[in-house]
Amino acid sequence: AQSRKEINVVYDQIGSPTLVDHLAHAILRICERYDQNRGSFPFGTYHYSNEGVASWYDFAHAIFELAGHIMTVNPVRSEAFPTKARRPAFSVLDKQKIKDTFDLQVPHWRAALRECLNEITHKE
């Protein structure tokens, strides 16, 4: 935002932006549960990400909006940024199992983004 007035961002890839602090909290919760219940620990595959869904466009737009920067964010298709790796159009994870098993409250990605931006702002 400091070096230009507009950017192009992919709008056709949907996921759930995730704050690493929230993921770390979930992992610690699982470790605590393991220490408490070694004999009956619920092993398995668990998915975690912040709640809500967003395209990269939505995420970029929210970053500039919450940071108070004026930036034109242009939505573009994935083809505008060719890569060798094929990216899924929809990569949202089902978190119900981890929430139920470990009694986790998962914040929305917008709340996580606000938290992240506040932390960055207070460090400067």
Task: Give a written overview of the molecule.
41% of the residues lie in helices and 11% in strands. It has 124 residues and is an alpha+beta fold. The strands form 2 sheets. It has a two-stranded parallel ribbon with strand order 1-4. Helix 2 crosses helix 4. The chain is globular, with a radius of gyration of 18 Å. The two termini are 17 Å apart. 15% of the residues are buried.
Q: Report the total helices.
A: 4
> Largest beta sheet, briefly?
2 strands, parallel
Helix-strand string:
EEHEHEHH
Shape: globular
Which spans have pLDDT < 50 for at least 5 consecutive residues? none
Total strand count, please?
Answer: 4
> How much helicity do the residues have?
40-55%
Order of neighbouring strands in the sheet with most strands? 1-4
Radius of gyration: 18 Å
Distance, first to last CA = 17 Å
The residue-averaged pLDDT reads: 95
How much of the residues is beta strand, in percent?
5-15%
Q: Which class best fits the helix and strand makeup?
A: alpha+beta
Secondary structure layout:
Elements: E1 6-10, E2 14-15, H1 20-36, E3 54-55, H2 56-67, E4 72-76, H3 96-102, H4 109-123
Gist of the model:
By secondary structure, the protein is α+β, with helices and mostly antiparallel strands. It has 4 helices and 4 strands; from the N terminus they run ββαβαβαα.
Keywords:
two-stranded antiparallel sheet; globular; 124 residues; alpha+beta; 4 helices; 4 strands
